[in-house]
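Anyone up for a design puzzle?
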C-alpha cells in the first residue's frame, strides 16, 4: 500500500480554507494562497509566494520565494472578468516570477509541463506556453505571446505582445523580440534577426538521426531557400511547397505562412535584411 502524504502548511503561511490542496503539497512561511487556488500533488510552494485568483497548478511543481501567480492582468481593458491561469506538471518557477491571468471572460493564461522559468521572468495576460521551455533570468513577456515546445530564450530581454516563438527556437540574450521567431531557428540582435538554424538544439533533440539525417538536411535546404535565396519569404515558401516536405520542414513552412497571414509584424527577417 502506498503511503498517503499529508499537506504541510507553515504556521506563518496564510491559506484560505477554500483552497484545494492535494496530498504532498508543501506551503512555505509567509506564503499567501487564495480561495480559488488548486494545487496538485507534491508541489512545493516556497516562502512568501502569492497565489491568487482562479489558479490551477498541477503536480510536482516548484515555486520559489517571491513568485506571484494568478493576479489580475496589467491591462487597462480588464474589467474584473473571472479569468484564470493554468499551469501543468513538473514546472520550476524561480524567484520572483510573475504570471498574470487573462483579460476577458472565458480566457486563460496557460503553461504546459516541465518548463523552467528563471528568476524575475514575467508572463503577461493571455500568454500560452508549451512544454520543455527554458527561459533565462529577467525575461519580460507581454500579453498574448505564444511560445512553442522546447524553445530556449536567453536572459534580459523583452518579447512584444502577440509575438509567436516557434518550437526549438533559440533566442540570444538581450535580443529585441518584436516579430515572430520561426521554429528551429537561432535569433539574436537589436533588432533581432534570424542568424541560422539552432543546430545544437536540433542535434540534441535527436532530429539529426531521424530518417538517417534526412530531416535535418532537408530543413537546412528549406531554410536556405527561404532566407538565403534571391526570393522574398513568400516566394521561397511557394517554392518549398512544391517539394515533399518532412515534418520539421512542413512545420517551419506552416509557421511562416501563418505569421505572414496574421498581418501584424510578420516573421523576423534574416541577418542582413532591413
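Challenge accepted. My sequence:
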Amino acid at each position: 500500500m502506498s503511503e498517503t502524504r499529508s499537506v504541510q502548511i507553515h504556521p506563518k503561511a496564510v491559506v484560505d480554507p477554500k483552497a484545494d490542496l492535494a496530498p504532498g503539497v508543501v506551503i512555505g512561511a509567509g506564503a499567501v494562497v487564495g480561495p480559488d487556488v488548486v494545487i496538485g500533488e507534491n508541489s512545493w510552494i516556497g516562502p512568501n509566494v502569492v497565489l491568487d485568483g482562479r489558479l490551477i497548478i498541477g503536480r510536482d511543481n516548484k515555486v520559489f520565494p517571491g513568485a506571484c501567480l494568478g493576479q489580475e492582468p496589467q491591462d487597462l481593458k480588464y474589467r474584473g472578468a473571472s479569468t484564470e491561469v493554468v499551469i501543468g506538471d513538473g514546472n520550476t518557477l524561480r524567484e520572483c516570477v510573475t504570471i498574470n491571468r487573462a483579460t476577458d471572460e472565458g480566457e486563460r493564461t496557460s503553461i504546459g509541463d516541465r518548463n523552467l522559468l528563471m528568476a524575475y521572468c514575467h508572463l503577461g495576460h493571455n500568454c500560452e506556453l508549451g512544454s520543455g521551455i527554458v527561459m533565462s533570468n529577467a525575461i519580460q513577456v507581454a500579453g498574448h505571446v505564444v511560445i512553442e515546445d522546447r524553445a530556449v530564450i536567453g536572459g534580459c530581454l523583452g518579447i512584444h505582445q502577440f509575438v509567436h516563438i516557434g518550437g526549438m527556437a533559440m533566442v540570444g540574450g538581450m535580443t529585441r523580440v518584436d516579430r515572430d521567431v520561426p521554429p528551429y531557428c537561432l535569433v539574436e540582435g537589436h533588432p533581432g534577426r534570424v542568424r541560422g538554424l539552432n543546430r545544437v538544439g536540433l542535434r540534441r533533440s535527436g532530429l539529426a538521426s531521424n530518417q538517417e539525417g534526412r530531416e535535418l538536411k532537408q530543413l537546412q535546404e528549406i531554410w536556405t531557400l527561404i532566407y538565403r535565396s534571391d526570393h522574398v519569404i513568400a516566394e521561397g515558401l511557394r517554392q518549398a511547397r512544391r517539394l515533399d516536405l518532412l515534418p520539421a520542414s512542413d512545420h517551419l513552412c506552416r509557421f511562416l505562412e501563418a505569421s505572414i497571414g496574421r498581418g501584424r509584424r510578420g516573421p523576423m527577417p534574416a541577418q542582413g535584411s532591413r
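A detail worth pointing out: The mean pLDDT is 95.
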